[in-house]
Amino acid sequence: MKNIVIGSGPAGRLGSLELGKLGEEVTLIEKNHIAGTCLNEGCMVVCALTDITKFIDSNNRFNHYGFIKSQLDISYEKIVEKITETQIKLRQLNQMENESFGNNIIYGEASIEEGEVKVNGESFEYDNLLIATGARPFIPDIPGSEHGLTNKDILKLDDVPDKLNIIGGGIIACEIANIYSTLGSEVNIIARSQILKEISANTKEYVLKHILNDINVIENTNVKEVSENKVLTDSDEELEGIPFFATGRTPNSEIAKGIVELNHDNTIKVNEMMKTSADNIYAAGDVTGGYQLTPVARMEGITAARNMANYSNKVSYNCIPQTLSLNMEVSFVENEKSECSEDDKKTIAFPGIGGPGAFWNILTGDTGYSEVEFDKNKNKINRINHISPSSVSDVAYLSYLMRMDYDLEDYGEFLEIHPSTDTNYKIIKTMWL
Q1: Burial track 79-91 (b if 16+ CB lie within 10 A, e otherwise)
Q2: Band of the pLDDT at 408, cuts 50, 70, 90?
Q3: CB within 8 Å of 144: residues ≥ 6 apart
Q4: Contacts with 412 (C-beta within 8 Å, 6 or more apart), sequence order
Q5: SS (H, E, C) 311-326
């Protein structure tokens, strides 16, 4: 069967790979760069810059302790140059990987018509189509918004801004704030409600006190107008600095308008098999809304591909682990399907330990924080908020156990690899205290 995939971000790229592995004929069409927002403008760029800020943070700590004396000279221009070089290498590897399964890759802007896709003046018929066109930054309709930066502009900056006003209160807003604050910017976060609503109140308190403590957080405030170097709030306060929008994302679904059914927010409507309202058209990734996370997009792309190849498959969104990439990671997961009553909930909280990556934080007491909610009746974990240098792997591991519906006794024989999973050990064992 002829399969066409539009978009080569995590959903489209993994969907194409899966189709190729299953022996299907695949044409992958990409408008710009292979690997999509994640590699080229999103989480990989944030992670690369956060690697730098973690190094700066450690250097400052070691200088404070007195056993290292060093003066860092940071070149933002050179950082951008090396990130770009790395992106080029990864694009080449991603293309080689897809082509190794016999997949045909075409670069150009696609359009969909009845039973065919057009790109670069050519028409391609398909038996199945996967739309994985992703999303782009949402820019609020306020005067001067054309002057605001977004994540698409990070690698276009000539240098670190002296002052930065980040508009938005979610994960991306806080990650960008952490990066530029550590690099030397004066940073404001301006949120129309509360920041970091994804995590618990105590976890947020720790983040603001120990990790984002150099950032000025302004909550319950709307932005009325922006200019190149100023933000005006609804209280008529003028904040000096470049405006940066981290106000959510909007789907690149224009290509599907009139072809398949859209949701009220213009995301593409799909079922649990990633099938749209058209029998032979599927969609996956950010263009469908929901969790806008690379691992989820990959999962959706693979699910769509298997169904396109007539291998019945359904996607499940239970216990999706997430993280906030700061100088110390903040990771969290919740079992949305838990039916635990308030009376049966029990929460334990404890400070981080000197586990992997945290030894030199002990002297200042900022080793992290863990908070676990579980169902004391059914003996199962409901929710985890976890701050530690190893929280990304810790919570990913524990979310799998939650997703597989293990109860706490099943955790009892866990044997850690010292020190890499010490924190897992601490979380698990503390539940019996």
Answers
A1: bbeebeeebeebb
A2: confident
A3: 225, 226, 227, 243
A4: 428
A5: CCCCCCCCCCCEEECC
For the stretch 312-342, pLDDT in tens is: 999 999 999 999 999 999 999 999 888 899 9
Q: How many C-beta atoms surround the C-beta of residue 158 within 10 A?
A: 8
Q: What are the tens digits of pLDDT across the range 240-275?
A: 999 999 999 999 999 999 999 999 999 999 999 999
Max distance between CA atoms of the chain, in angstroms, equals: 69
CA 383/CA 373 separation, integer angstroms: 5
Which residues lie below 8 Å from residue 43, measured CB to CB, with a gap of 6+?
294, 325
- What rounded mean pLDDT belongs to the chain? 94
Q: What is the DSSP string of 270-334?
A: --TT-B-SSTTEEE-SGGG-S---HHHHHHHHHHHHHHHTT-------TT--EEE-SSS-EEEEE
Strand pairing report for 110-113 and 116-119: antiparallel
Contacts of 2 (CB under 8 A, 6+ apart): 25, 27, 124, 125, 126, 127, 128
Query: 185 CB contacts (<8 Å, ≥6 apart)?
Result: 160, 161, 162, 163, 164, 241
Question: Does 424 or 138 have the greater pLDDT score?
Answer: 138
| Separation CA 406–CA 383 (nearest Å) | 14
Locate 432 and state its tokens: 């019996």
Q: Give which of 421, 347, 413 is closest to 389, Cα–Cα.
A: 421
| Alpha-carbon distances of 236 from 11, 164, 239, 240, rounded to whole Å | 43, 18, 10, 13
DSSP code string of 48-89: HHHHHHHHHHHHHHHHHHTS--------HHHHHHHHHHHHHH
Containing 344, the helix (H) or strand (E) segment is none
What does the alpha-carbon distance between residue 246 and residue 179 come to, in Å, rounded to a whole number? 14
Burial (0-12, 13-18, 19+ Cβ within 10 Å), 371:
buried
Instruction: Please provide residue 232's backbone torsions phi and psi, each rounded to the nearest 5 degrees.
Output: -110, 125
